[in-house]
Structure prediction request, 236 residues.
Amino acid sequence: MTVTRPGYPRWHTANAQGPRSLNADAVGAYAAAGGPGIVFALADGVGDDAAAALAARTAAAAAARTAVHKGPVEAVLTAGRAVRERTLGDAVLVVAMPAERGGYRIAWAGDARAYSWDGTTLARLTTDHTLAEYFRARHQPVTPRMEHVVTTSVRTAGPDEIGTAETTSTGLLLTSDGVHKPLGGSGIRAVLARPGTGAAELVEAALARGGSDNATAVYVEPVAADVTTERFPVAA
Prediction:
């Protein structure tokens, strides 16, 4: 899906269930009336069941509708409260809020990721909250299984456990691990470097590379790349 609205960046989102039994990824995007821009959120349910899917949908919606002045950390905390109220499931989450002077403020819990992209350079903005990253940072051996064990989540993260970052880039990419794990940074850059590509091509490439998870991406085009305007009908 591609969305273009006057005064807002052009952005795309794509999702595929992959070989999983259901889709437990979710995306939220919300522009409050009179607000400075669009808040984007991407959540990935922990597990492959209905509770995980509900947790992801709940987290993404609650985070995206958090007022921008409250900041992205509060968006993650708001998502946590909503998840605990509505389901026994859990999710990981990344949120991007417009910054006052351009770019985005990022907050996350778990291993959903944010990248900046200016049309040439891809920069990773987040660090996975996984057992693998915990031991890697301490120069300890890491096993493949550790890459899939998260150390924070929407349900459990307190304010001091939520990751934060900022970018001045107008180009932004949010991904679930079903995209960034099969592709890696070099694979993501190779896809985005091709003219006219975006979220859909990233998801397709991740599955073609052998991805075994739900795959979801949100891609906000850099302002310089927005040379055409395309109307997209959005259902009510």
In short: The CA atoms of residues 99 and 167 lie 8 Å apart. The mean pLDDT is 91.
